Amino acid sequence: MIFTSLKNLIKVGSKKSGEISFNANIKEHEVEIMYKSDKGIISGKVERYHKYVDYKHIYDKFEYACKVKLSSEFSKLALFNSFTKKVIEFKDNLITAKIGNARIAKQRENIDSTELNGKTIALQTRTSNSMIALDTKKEATWYFKNDTMPYRIIQHDLENTIDIVEMPIIK
């Protein structure tokens, strides 16, 4: 799942789920989730969401970071380790997060350079957590917990050319 510090509506879905889509309305300490199925609209709440929204707490637990300078216009960041491909995509003012080939979430947000400050996206899988932070210096920083595998940040610009940046571990 993707967790974002932006307290707006998030649309969550997967290519495998077809018509099924989820809407998670983030509140201070809980998330309301609604999704469509054959049985109509199902809604529910996810409690204890605050432990994923507390980014200072999450940040303190990350021991390593990768940082990359972004081009003046960019549309996609791809994060790789040996087993998993994680992609943050920026297109038509939508932020889309992907893990593998499944679309995890979309967040409508302005990505002009003056609006980048404070845009933080945390990625959670069953095995690891990581966090992407964007700032007004056009930098993306990926925070993660261990360096058991080499990490790379690949940036795709709007013209579909690829910059590959091999990032050393920053301790």
What does the model show?
With 171 residues, the protein is mainly β. The chain has one domain. 6% of the residues lie in helices and 53% in strands. It contains two helices and 15 strands. The chain has helices at 50-53, 55-61; strands at residues 2-4, 9-13, 21-26, 30-37, 40-47, 64-69, 76-80, 85-91, 94-99, 102-108, 119-124, 129-135, 139-144, 152-156, 162-166. The protein has a six-stranded antiparallel sheet, with no helix packed on it. The longest helix has 7 residues, at 55-61. It starts with a strand and ends in a 5-residue tail after the last strand. The model is unreliable at 1-60, 99-118 and 149-171 (pLDDT under 50).
Can you give keywords for this protein?
mainly beta, disordered N terminus, disordered C terminus
Concise overview:
With 171 residues, this protein is mostly beta strands. The protein is built from two helices and 15 strands. Strand 12 (129-135) and strand 13 (139-144) form a beta hairpin.
